[in-house]
Amino acid sequence: MTNPLFYAKILLFGEYGIIEDSRGLTLPFSFYKGTLKFSELQSDFEKKSNEHLRNYAEYLKVLTLPAGFEVDTESFIKDINSGLFFDSNIPQGYGIGSSGALVAAVFEKYSLKKYDAETISKDDLKALKKVFGLLESYFHGTSSGIDPLICYMNLPILIENKENVDKVAIPQSEEGKKGAIFLIDSGTAGETGPMVQIFFEKMKTEGFRKTLKEEFIRYNNACIEYFLSKEMNPFFRNLKNLSVWAFEHFKPMIPESLYKAWKKGIDTNAYYLKLCGSGGGGYILGFTRDYEKAEEMLEGFNKEVIYRF
Prior knowledge:
By secondary structure, the protein is an alpha+beta fold.
């Protein structure tokens, strides 16, 4: 492969729940992408990216990876000295995998062992997820490894639990249909670390732990099941429950600019909103049976349709 592209990812379902063993469903998003390139490093963007790669290479030099998953850091550093940078239009702090794509690109180019997305086994996926968690920890302190795995595989992935992931076929997007899944730009970037910290603080309360396990995870898992089987009535029932639950319990993670719009969707049943990643800013996910109507009601927000049904 020459200059392979690594797409952004969208976590449709599973935000925060996957920390507590819920299921998750994530898919590549080709609108945003990144690739490793060489240049004379003329622009500020290229210089900054090259410097980031240099710092990352220093981290990789002292990182111990499992046998069989080693990365050739010497070649990586040599290329950085020759003007390597990560050319990406994936916005940072938007919950769509900017660091995941970079990690995937570095691993694809410099890992000693290569993998084929079509034939990769479930055991290899599990092992790769752990390795990617180590590789991405540089950016977030800790990482599940899911984001880089999606970007690396460039396939929809079903997160079965904390340990296991598998490739999954999602129903084909049907252009021209009324229903849609869409992104809303909250207008500000979010930071994963502080949001995850808020979540762990909440987890210290027994009541929150109970409702997360008994309600949130149940709605989340049901949404995945019904979406994959294209059963839209029970899908939207559970989606509404999920949106209401998040509005009540994930308020700090919901960008303030979207409070009213979030509530309006629940009250009118015209659309439902949910977090896209850790929240706090970046993108929010929207789901509707009638995108034209939802678009009118969400006038003033930048929106991007990602899937039609």
